[in-house]
Amino acid sequence: MLFNIVTVAGYVLGAGLAAYAALLFLSNRSAIKGDHDAAPLLFLIRDGAVTDANFAGGHALVHIDGPDAAIDRLRLLLTRGFDNPGRLIAPPDSEGDITAESRDGRLQATRHVVGESIRLKLRQIVDGTPSSDDIHVQRAIESELETLRANTAAAPFLLWRQNADGEITWANRAYMTAIETSQGAPHKVWPLPTLFPSLRTTALSRDGQRISLHDANGHDEAWYDCHVAPVGPDLLCTAIPADEAVRSENRRREFTQTLTKTFAELATGLAIFDRERRLVLFNPALLDLTNLPSDFLTSKPSLVGFLDRLRENRVMPEPRDYRSWRTSIAELEAAAADGTYSETWSLPDGQTYHVTGRPHPDGAVALLFEDISAEMSLTRRFRAELERSQAIIDAMDDAVAAFSAAGRLALTNRAYRDLWGDDGADGLVGREIGDVMRRWHALSQPSPAWGDFRDYAQRSHDREEWTANVTMLDGRHLACRFVPQKGGETLAIFRVQTSSPVEVRFRHAV
């Protein structure tokens, strides 16, 4: 878009200068309609000021935008057509009579020193008799010139033209306003100062340069995106306000720095890929977890290249073959983009990583690497302890059932499952105490012990160990023992007796 603005501005300014030149000569020819020579522009200069001019000369100066002083307008007019125009209006004591031809060969300037004054004449070299259509052409050009002048004056960006020596030969209203802001007062002397001395005039218009300006106090900073485009022997320069773009970039940079500092403290490895699937952000934890060199990560590798390097470093599960590897990469990318990728990677060296994929705005994807080796090791040890504990209680002759503080069956052994008729090791685990009670009621003769146990297991305090005797439907006698545990848990132990409770009590009495 910036390049288009520069190009359009070049066309506008170039067309404006061409229209002005044509208007200048057509005006002269119309003013002397019937003569064979076009009316020249005559100026009388004394003490560095234009003291007089003929009608054509005054008309030419009136239509030059920019400086207020007539001598500065004349200098600007000469700069557009002649090389080293300062010689033509230099003081009489520094230069004598001069005759010069314009760069395009269509104008001749004659300087004649008369005492302390200078008589300057500009005349058209091209011969010819004015045609009857000149007045219509002149009016069309005047209309076009006014339109172009209004367009450049209303442009919100700075626009100026400078010659090969760097001297500004034309500037729009926005440039003049910028000078006033920079210097604290309007600039009424020509040539105009250069606001952007660091602008590289050899750069193409597509290669923008961001340059800042300060106000007269050197405080407030204004940023511009500057462009340069050749227009004939001169350069057309534009400076488009870029304050909002700079503020946006600063906010984004500060936000990125904040994220980077935050991510640097995380133990989880983070890799963010943009919509082109290039690595654009990572944290130090990723280096530690993947053992990838920092120069590789800073080179912005692709997602495929990143994962391929992980495979080479044996930091991801080894695929069966290359085809399955490529398939897994495609599936990983698709799942990460949907936010559904979550896998546990068991690495050859025994480490375990939990890898998740998360979508981000603008099509970006984030991969998070979490080392869960210690957690997995603890889980395996805990599972081994559970299996060992289960094996121990399974070897017991007594039937054992443990209830949680919430009243759910948490643990049973083989003897319990044989006693109460459940085949699976975890078939009863997790059931509510009410469901367990109904099973006990169904397989035993009526007994108040079951209701008492239900109330006992649901209390959280004032509990003591107690016992009860129950008879099964098949005639077996059970000695029941109920023991409170820490945290509100309850242990129920059942022992099958070979004698009836009465016989047992009789033997104990004897």
From TrEMBL:
Q: What is this protein called?
A: PAS domain-containing protein
Transmembrane segments in this chain: where? 6-26
User: One short Pfam family name for this protein?
Assistant: PAS_7
Concerning Gene3D superfamilies, the annotation shows: PAS domain
| InterPro entries in UniProt | PAS, PAS-like_dom_sf
Record-annotated PAS domain positions = 146-214, 257-324, 387-453
Name the keywords, alphabetized.
Answer: Membrane, Transmembrane, Transmembrane helix
What species does this protein belong to?
Silicimonas algicola
